[in-house]
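# nightly structure sweep
# worker-07 picked up a monomer target from the shared queue
# config: single-sequence mode, recycle default, output format = structure tokens
# input follows
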Amino acid sequence: MGGAKVIAIGQGGGPTPVINSQVAGVLYEAKHSNVRKILGLRNGLEGLLYDCPENIVDITDLNPFSIKTVPGAVLGTTRIKLDKDKDDDKIEIIKKRMHENSIDALIYFGGNDSSYVLQSLGDGFIFVHGAKTIDNDLPCCHHTPGFGSAALFNAKAIRNLALDLFSFKKMVRDMSGKIVYGETSAVIYQVMGRDTGWLAMASAFAKVDEGGTINSSFPPHIVWPAELEFDEERYLNSAENFLMKEGKVFIVVSEGVSKTIDGKKVSLAELCGEVKRDEHGHTDYGRTDKSAAEYLSGLLKKINIRCIQKIKSTQILPQHLQRCYEISLQDSAEAFLVGRESLRAVMDGNHQVSIVLKESNTYSAKPARVPLSEIAGKVRYVPSEYYNGNNITGPTQSFIDEFIPAIGSLEQLPSYFELK
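# output follows
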């Protein structure tokens, strides 16, 4: 692609805290490249699919640093899905609009579905995918832009919530003089992750001490990732053990945790009642009033019957706060680099590639180009060795060591005095 160029940028899927840092990276790199015009697509591919001039905005002169740390998706986003075998008409409309607007290339920031959509668009233009998702479930990468910020939010929230909600623990003595708990506390904190438990695992960053080592007494005490099928007896035994020993238990659960009933996987949210679903048939955990947290909270009543007189149970569902409230400077910087590399890939004439973060010898995530076919429609699950197979007390130290740099540093986590 020689000469002047017109490049369009779109954002797809759920926003991340740093998806605008990626757009900022493109704009910054464009100012140092032979690019004539940068167009922003409102609401992703909907900006091309629907014939409305306001859907395509010239953002060539937009200051990259005015949007770099803005939450949400500044261009607007979409959940639209395209299938090359079913949506020929829509694909042709999108390509027609690109021709009409003299667009040479499209840079699209998104996750699994967005990468598949780009693959469905086929040939005729340069299509570059910039990986993003707080779920961290894309293959071929060390971690994804957005994951570090969401992980940092959850770890900080868990540390603070534990100190707040466990302030009500009441200790009394029984007839024999033994200390027992007159009231115990259980906190169930639900994290995003329909199919994978990367964020659930990362919630255990709250468990590390100032040296980066897991402290088993720190919350969360139970971590149940989406990859691990739910086992009621194991859950109750573990929760009861913490409640009996310490008078408290902090539980983290992926929103999509399920169990098998009559040969079919059923999410814990569905076991609470009818759930809401999105236009693609997926359970809409962000908007349904049924949840895995509700199901786990209800089960704790069985512990009441068995041995503990009173359990004060609290459900915490931060939902969309995980992807907008906290921005890790490390995450933002890495996302910015992914944006810059996306533009470079376009200028090099790369087609159907995805820009992901790879790790160098010592921790330093660097953007790399991989074929889109290795990303599109695929899911990366948390390897079982990161949680010792069926262990539910949290990830291994190797997981902590490998991924805690994604939040920036240990110093990003709050450290508090606690009376012993």
